[in-house]
Amino acid sequence: MKIMKLSENRKFSKFIIYLRAFYNAFYSATEQINARKLLNKNMFVTVPVYRRAMSEEATNGKVSPSPSPQLTQSAPAVEMAQMAINESSKITFLDQFRAFSKFGDTKSDGKHITLSQSDKWMKQAKVIDKKITTTDTGIHFKKFKALKISYGDYNKFLDDLAKTRKVDLEEIKKKMINCGSPGVTQVTAGKAASAVERLTDTSKYTGTHKERFDASGKGKGIAGRKNIVDESGYVTGYQNKDTYPAAH
User: Is the dihedral of CA 101, 106, 109, 112 positive or negative?
Assistant: First the structure.
């Protein structure tokens, strides 16, 4: 019974994590959509008014009255909408720290991070490589003599690690900011294997397969699959086809 309860609790914890992530993503997307709608609406109203005023000045030589206060007051709204879009798209190092400090721990408050969570973060950001290993992170993390460390101590941990391994601290933080949400792996375009390249190189084809492609590697279509009989009446290899005068 205890084993069944533990498995049920784990399933429920995972469900809560996924539900929270979905809610955060949906809320952020909704904010961006509303901000863009407000921006487009105000731009649609103000731009035609100013264009009309400029055209009247050009044709009549008179200074047209200024737009109504209601329209001029919409400029701050446009700026606020643009600021909301920019702010929502920015992710700080503190935001990533909070996200990874909660990764795999439903009871975490986002203020302290463990060595395991830090290593997962660094691996996802590709900070852990030949220069920095998990052994290095373990040695420097244990200097704080705690299972979890705060945001301030974590910055000291990275500073000490960067100085010891002679790596740029700002470059480390940049990678850790841009690595995406916890558990998200970035896919890069792969290179075709040598066997695949050899099999797709038409210049190495032989026999009937060679006849299906021209010198540039472009397929000939049906002409490369069937022997089309020339029924024009000319012998094979005749160079002056269709040059005989039609009057004869």
Answer: negative
CA distances from 175 to 137, 179, 183 (A): 16, 6, 15
Helices 151-165 and 93-101, axial angle in degrees (round to 10) = 110
Closest CA to 25 of 180, 174, 185: 180
Q: Which residue has the tokens 């026999």?
A: 207
**pTM for the full predicted model:** 0.42
Dist CA 94 CA 208 (whole Å): 64
| Count of beta carbons in the 10 Å neighbourhood of residue 149 | 21
| Nearest-angstrom CA–CA distance, 113 and 121 | 10
Which residues does 127 contact at the CB level (< 8 Å), separation at least 6?
A: 172, 175, 176
Q: What is the CA radius of gyration of the chain?
A: 34
Residue 152's CB is within 10 A of a number of other CB atoms, namely 8
Q: How far apart are CA 9 and CA 6, in angstroms?
A: 5
Backbone angles phi and psi of 86, in degrees to 5: -65, -40
Q: Could you report the per-residue pLDDT of 111-135, keeping only the tens digit for each?
A: 999 999 999 999 999 999 888 999 9
pLDDT digits (tens, 9 = 90+) for 54-90: 555 555 555 445 444 444 444 555 555 555 545 545 8
Instruction: Count other C-beta atoms under 10 Å from residue 178's C-beta.
Output: 11
- CB atoms inside a 10 Å sphere around CB 159: 13
